[in-house]
């Protein structure tokens, strides 16, 4: 079952009282057999609830400062055309009653609450966006995270980890950006991918015939899901852990990095595609920032002097988080410089910042 | 004034009755001095409203089939931290009461209703998206349409015509797509732009030194707004109606096209950047489709045999509208072929279809 929640709001240039609007609406509610309860708001405008058949509920508020709000809730198997008519009748009547006093009439797209497929996945700065997801293809709770793959008619299949939109099949621009936006030549190079369980970076890298790519992904279940449902992204790279020019280690990247540092193993590129909120088998670091700095420090240590470190940052709207990240870059063991780029990743519905970092 | 509307929803694997949940919540409501009214739903679950000080309202519903919904409304000048605490307390209590029965807990980002700057501009297929708009820079009602220019921290300034997102300063990908995605050479060519009042296409075209561009835009007020607030898009092209290699006619394009057909004037490219819903001084055609076909027919007539006609189509999600458009292409006086491309325009928050049309 799902609850459909409609809204209809009138913004007014001057406040109106309930006496001039509510009586004109009552006949519409009564026609629909809605039972009225008027509530005492202690001077904060008129507030009435109307309860009808089939679980219908309407909340009508004439606020004291130039705003009228109507909420209508019904079940998804209700007679939707009838409820549209009810809303249309209310809108028409209020337009007639309020005329030139109206500055805006707003009916939001219906909110669907409790639906099988959850379509609301907010942006990094907490704005509401509704995706077109129509199916859950894969859902697993691994030892590390909740993994979902949805189908989107426009973006293709899309990976969501712990509620964060990770990557859709439409999102080659993400993979291109985190590989340096086409300005790098990976042929014959040694590359380390941290995370990257969707296989997108790996699939693009192997096309360029690198000498060797090592990908360190902690979560086998992410790769299992992507191998099945994100093949437009990963191709056949996740079908085996050992390819011609790549190797996938299903491990926490921190001990692997520590081992490489100890062995003196170096890479031409390190591509950090870890989730924004760290996942690790390591003892908890003091904070997320400490953990990010640990990863950065170790990565820079395994980077050849001319090497480059690429990573995704965050949504351009969360300026504070971006600043804090850039602050960390000034605190590394080895001094670094960085550049950043704003990129439009189709399924993200917000612009995204990508970083390039290199040794000074 | 604006109303903040919070939601908190619990999806359950099996239905619960109110007796097992509601009593555990009442102390939380009473602490906040909220006055309870229980409504008769005629067998459709438990429904209670709670009215508090400062115009606060809570609606609690324990639906009969595995869903609990909570709505909380308050004014934007209310003590938001206190209301967050109320929601947190309700969520915590319900998590404790319902435990393993819970399949999803969802708190949507707060809906802001009646705010000065309207941030909700739905997609073509009617999905709810909240933009980051923080300011209205320009608002005019011209003879043809309502014109707004908002400021968006991430997309730059953005033109909205009659409630449709038209173009943001971030949207060079739109302009590039409607100019043929970089595959055309406009140097020395004659180009006709229909609409295009934001100046984006004109500004990109003149960089390529065409022989002559004629732009026919009906609405001076759109150009006035864009000249002031969309300069990253239009550059200085809208500062004058006559440039070195361009001319802007502030006219309805239909009579202009008719005149060109009569005179036998031809163009290498026609770029149709008219709004999706037609605006014209012509007598109303039978339907939108008739009007679109009229424009297409006239445009194809002024196109050189090797010429190309570019236009934006619609959101990829509105498949029916796209099919109907393509159907029109089979009904033109002069037979045409077409190709289409899906493009990610940053501020659209949905993928968009662009068409290239040419004479068979």
TrEMBL record, chains A, B:
GO biological process, one term: spermine biosynthetic process
Pathway entry: Amine and polyamine biosynthesis; spermine biosynthesis; spermine from spermidine: step 1/1
Source superkingdom: Eukaryota
SUPFAM superfamilies: S-adenosyl-L-methionine-dependent methyltransferases
Keyword vocabulary terms for this entry: Acetylation, Phosphoprotein, Polyamine biosynthesis, Transferase
Gene Ontology molecular function, alphabetical: spermine synthase activity
Enzyme class, UniProt record, top EC level: transferase
Family stated for the protein in its record: Belongs to the spermidine/spermine synthase family.
E.C. no: 2.5.1.22
Reaction equations catalysed: S-adenosyl 3-(methylsulfanyl)propylamine + spermidine = spermine + S-methyl-5'-thioadenosine + H(+)
Assembly description: Homodimer. Dimerization is mediated through the N-terminal domain and seems to be required for activity as deletion of the N-terminal domain causes complete loss of activity.
Lineage of origin: Eukaryota, Metazoa, Chordata, Craniata, Vertebrata
UniProt-recorded name of the protein: Spermine synthase
